[in-house]
Design goal:
The structure holds 2 protein chains of 2 kinds.
Chain A lengths: L1 H24 L18 E3 L7 E3 L8 E6 L5 H15 L4 E6 L3 H11 L5 E5 L3 H5 L7 E5 L5 E6 L4 H14 L3
Parallel strand pairs in A: 3-4, 4-5
Antiparallel strand pairs in A: 1-2, 3-6, 6-7
Chain B lengths: L1 H17 L5 H13 L18 H15 L4 H12 L14 H24 L10
Helix pairs in contact in B: 2-3
Classes of the chains: A alpha/beta, B mainly alpha.
């Protein structure tokens, strides 16, 4: 008993170190979204390329799809753009863009310059739909299933690793 | 002389302006400010929504303002934000099973510390009174 008590502070210290060590590995900026497991917020927005045509959440029911929030002013959107272009070439899942707080002509010019991976982009000039989706750091990417439920959210630029380890396994699970 | 009179009149009219009854917008501003002070800005996480000048914080403050103007209660506005951005935005997180450790952990740790101290103190043999020889 005496010997065990002697080791107790050491044990407590080791526990504390383990806890802090784990804390170092966590990303303080990654806030888990309350939307996961819940129906994707409804929207009906004009398309970026055609103000006369609208696209709504319910148009996409019955399909698994990705929502990618982007803007021409967003510098880190450039970082993930190659990944998105490659994804659009190799996957049958529709990639829908949400052009967040942008000007229509700058958004279109940006797509012309860098290539357009999106099946369609929604034009969210005042950012209302972005706020409904809890967007706080562009770019963000959501995976939405056939029933319109949000299954995954990625904050920040999407890279090949995130695609391989997070999104592709989920898409397989969703049977795409 | 007329210059001084003009200045005097200006000063008096400023006083009159200041003593106007508080306009409802000022009340609204105060409510927005007070609520925003209880919310964390997600862009710069060490600032409240009231202090932050990030574009998202500006947007959310105007959203708060609109909602309050349309008669939403404080609780409804906080619910609107936590539904979208999670409990993380609330500086005072709600009491639920996932936050029990947060709410009661410090108290329990304190209790454990005091108990340990009590046990240790009881075990240490009382020292004799210092010998002043």
């Amino acid at each position: 008993m005496k010997r065990w008590l002697f080791a107790a502070p050491l044990l407590a210290f080791a526990l504390l170190v383990a806890l802090l060590w784990r804390g170092l590995a966590l990303d303080a900026h990654a806030v888990s979204s309350p939307l996961i497991g819940r129906p994707a917020p409804a929207f009906a927005l004009a398309r970026l390329d055609d103000a006369q045509r609208t696209l709504s959440r319910d148009d996409l029911l019955g399909r698994v799809w990705l929502l990618n929030v982007w803007a021409s002013w967003c510098t880190s959107c450039r970082d993930e753009h190659g990944t998105l272009l490659a994804f659009a070439r190799t996957h049958a899942v529709p990639l829908i863009g949400l052009n967040y707080k942008d000007a229509r002509d700058s958004g279109l010019a940006w797509l012309d310059r860098h290539g357009n991976p999106y099946a369609a982009s929604l034009f969210d000039a005042d950012g209302r739909v972005g706020r409904d989706y809890g967007v706080y750091g562009v770019p963000e990417t959501f995976v939405i299933d056939r029933r319109g439920v949000v299954r995954y959210k990625h904050v920040g630029p999407l890279d090949a690793q995130a695609l391989r380890t997070r999104i592709e396994p989920l898409l397989r699970e969703l049977d795409v | 002389m007329s210059k001084y009179l003009a200045i005097l009149l200006c000063a008096l009219s400023l006083r009159a302006f200041a003593s106007l009854p508080a306009d409802p917008d000022a009340d609204l501003d105060a409510r927005v400010q007070q609520l925003a002070g209880e919310l964390r800005c997600l862009v710069c996480q060490n600032q409240s929504l009231a202090d932050s000048q990030a574009p998202l914080a500006l947007d959310l403050r105007s959203e708060l303002r609109e909602r309050l103007r349309h008669g939403d209660s404080d609780a409804q506005v906080l619910a609107y934000l936590s539904e979208r951005y999670g409990d993380f935005v609330l500086y005072r997180p709600p009491l639920k099973s996932s936050t029990w450790a947060l709410w009661f952990g410090p108290g329990l740790l304190m209790l454990a510390g005091v108990m340990t101290l009590g046990i240790v103190l009881r075990r240490v043999p009382r020292e004799e009174a210092p010998d002043n020889g």
